[in-house]
Design a protein that fits this description.
Helix content is 69%, strand content 0%. By secondary structure, it is mainly alpha-helical. The radius of gyration is 19 Å and the shape is elongated.
Length: 87
């Protein structure tokens, strides 16, 4: 009985790690790009023209949608309702 409980706890921990991996795979590259543009330099990459800023925001949006759809097509979608700790 103890081994069954340990196995269930291990499966829950593995699922939580999977969810955290998916979330970080989506947001870490976006955080890096935002960090580059958030620095206080005189020459900013998107300051030259509004078109560059539009491209920057559009690229981040496209990346987020692409990464999310990639995980959904690989059947790695986030199932947050299974993470509840009701026991």
């Amino acid at each position: 009985m103890h081994e069954l409980y340990n196995s269930e706890q291990t499966n829950r921990a593995n699922h939580v790690m999977k969810v955290l991996t998916i979330v970080s795979a989506i947001f870490i590259p976006l955080t890096f790009i935002v960090g580059v543009y958030g620095t206080n330099f005189d020459i900013l990459p998107a300051a030259a023209s509004p078109a560059r800023l539009f491209f920057y925001v559009g690229y981040n949006d496209c990346y987020c949608h692409f990464a999310t759809s990639l995980f959904q097509t690989k059947k790695m979608a986030l199932k947050l309702e299974t993470l509840s700790v009701s026991d």
